[in-house]
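Forwarding the complex inputs:
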Amino acid sequence: MRRCAAVLALALAAAAPPLAAQSLTNLLDSGIRAYQNLDFPLAERVLERTAHEAAAADSTSLVQQARMYLGATEIYLKNPDSAFATFRRIVLADPRFEADQLVFPPQVTGVFDSARSATPAVALGVPADTVLTGASPALPIAVYPSTLHRVVLTVTDAAGAHPVVLLSGLVADSAVEQWTVPPPARGGGGGRYRIIAQSMDLNGDVLRSVSVPIRVAPNVPDTLALPAPPPDSLFLPEHAHDHLGVTSLAAGIGVGAALAALAPAMAPGGHLTPARFAVAGSVGLAGIIGFFTHKPGRTIPANVAANRAIRQAWVAHRDSVAALNASRRRGAGVVVRAGAAERHEGVAQ
Amino acid sequence: MRRVPVALVLAVLLAAPLGAQTLRAGAVAAAARVTTPFSPGEPTLTGALAGGVGEVDLGVLALAGTYLQGRVTGTNSVAWDVVEGDVVLAVRPAPWVSIGFGPHARSYLTGAGTVRWVLWSARAGVALPLATDAMRATFDLWAALAGSVDGTTPYGSARGLTGGLSVRIPRTRVWALGTYRAEHLALSGAAGVETYEEIGVGVGLAF
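Prediction (whole assembly, two chains):
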């Protein structure tokens, strides 16, 4: 009865369109239950479909789990070669994958380990998005081999040229190398590079490789906006537009002339002395001096000095902000963004 | 008696803020030339006078006074002591305009007695700044509304003018002035005319 239900479920699953993540998880659970119930033929079919559907959905974690249970199922179905091949696919997809010894018996983990040992592959550990600072920023690149073998780690430009070999040798567990990131060109959009890790056989031939594209761009730090020039309303007029000079001239000449002319009229026949002309001339001269010292358009030194102080304060503030921004830009470093790893059998394309 | 409280009330109401009120006092020296009918043998006398000036400036209202004394002499034996003074209460409708009224007296102590002019005059004047308030050109015209002469002949008329330059030394309390004054004083009828001319300088402090 239970078997009929499982078959019915499988039939429905087979006819269904690609599954969503939740449905894939349910399907994996169905396969695992079948495996745990020792219904290995059913488990094999469900897990194969799960791995297929999860691969189509780019759900790497589900694929790896489904394949692990599928390999174990195949061992119990007395198909060790199929199990080996399944485990080998796991290792190729993720050289760091390890069989859970709490879930699978040694009979299974032993086969997995032998498949892993027979499948030299390497995984790259590169920060997905990082900011590197300093005069010579260095990007740490980790190499994780599936088994002890010779690994060649290089960094090339986007076209695959100008390789820089960071590592060439046997790697057992892991290795971390530092790549000094070239400074991005000033004003450019940054550089594109490719990190390539090659797994070599004993003859020095490339078995397979994994590459990660990276993009290096200048880090744009937070900078302060330059202060705006002081508004015109802050400045005092540097040239006089008043009529002080003209009124001074008019007052001096007017009073002087009145003194000189009206005195005889006020005292007719009085035979006045010329002394009035001295006072009248002094008043007129003072008016003329006032005109020339306060004529329209004259420069007002106090206002010029005050305006100069405002401008100098603004320039000093602007220069300090510019210096601070330049300092921040100098120490900003670079941004390194890594893309998705690409795996190739043989030499990377 | 009532006039004193009324004047005080007006002074209080028209007074400027305390910071705008000014008290000025100083010394004046002048050279005078008078042609007078009271010295028929030698009508033109000249001499020097000295004295003081003072002013209380309340803004719209101002009270000013002058006192001078000295001696004028002729080329021969005539020598008269002169004492003169005036008090003017002025109203300033604008800072540079003043309209005033007050008594003005001058006495000549002659060998034969004292000749005293007492005039009640109305004045109108301007004090125009020459580019800066620290330097002003001043000009006053006055005419006597009433007067008397302690002589043998009754009073006729009187008028005159005063003009000059006043300077406030920047950033100090010191002021200085130079003035010219001409007066025409007529006795009644054709009894005679006195012409008084004076050029003076002064210096003082403002508070």
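Chain B has a mean pLDDT of 87.
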